[in-house]
Amino acid sequence: MLEDPSIEALFIGTRHSTHADFTIQALNAGKHVFVEKPMVVTESQLDAVIASYDEANATKPTALMVGLNRRFAPLTIKLKEALNPADALQMIYRVNSGNIPTSTWLHDQDEGGGMLIGEMCHFVDLMQFISGERPVSVYAQSLRVNSHKTTDFDNLSIVVSFDGGSVGTLCYNTVGSSGFPKERLEVYGGGVVGVIDDFKSLEIVKGGKPTRLKTAHQDKGQSREVSETVDAFRQTGQAPIPFADLVAGMRVIFAVRQSALSGQSVALHP
Q1: Which residues are paired to 172 by β-bridges?
Q2: Where are the chain's structural domains?
Q3: 9-67+224-238 belongs to which homologous superfamily?
């Protein structure tokens, strides 16, 4: 596939630890890349992907897209349209995720990276998209579960500060109940309140007037993500998510671990 000139793009859906290597091989071969999240599992892998991306784009437009689908969900788009881009936002994202046994490959740091790397990148990316701002600092605390069946770093409270004044708080846990909805995003700013509940309903209160939307089926944006990716690859040679956003989101994830271990806020650098 790397050597076939008729193949213009590769979609990578392998285990997390292989994402960076396959992405680099594809970029070096001049192929557009869609890689499932996470883009990488280590900071050294991130540096290597950045170098390959820059080298490929020095020759011709070469796209790299990561499977961060929630920004493409219909309810996400409607919420963003209701907000004023100039307003700083307070974002609260609660995730009631099911517990995944610590014996699985997802919790192997060299192969899966845990839920912090494998899953929480979704929610950081969505807060970046909603705010339209770049993250500048991170503070995180983990739950002390005291159980060999559950990882502390699967249960985190994360505060991300953004360069436009917005603040995003992610509360991700695996110690709740599957009988409760998985995701809820609340956004406050500029006299507007917006709430997405499990990507099944959206409530917006603007000018004191509530608007409520419900969908027949949960839609987290996967279909629109793929169609927009293919269109962008063909038309512009770029991805629908800016590469800078992809890099910034991964830097947040790595800073979360550093902050949770040190107990200190971590500043992010471009």
Answers
A1: 95, 156
A2: 9-67+224-238, 69-221+250-267
A3: NAD(P)-binding Rossmann-like Domain (3.40.50.720)
Mean pLDDT of 117-134: 97
Residue 107 has pLDDT above 80, yes or no: no
- pTM over 0.85, yes/no: yes
pLDDT digits (tens, 9 = 90+) for 188-198: 999 999 999 99
Fold for domain 69-221+250-267? Dihydrodipicolinate Reductase; domain 2 (3.30.360)
**Tens of pLDDT, residues 140-177:** 999 988 877 778 788 999 999 999 999 999 999 999 99
Q: Which two tokens stand for residue 64?
A: 């790299």
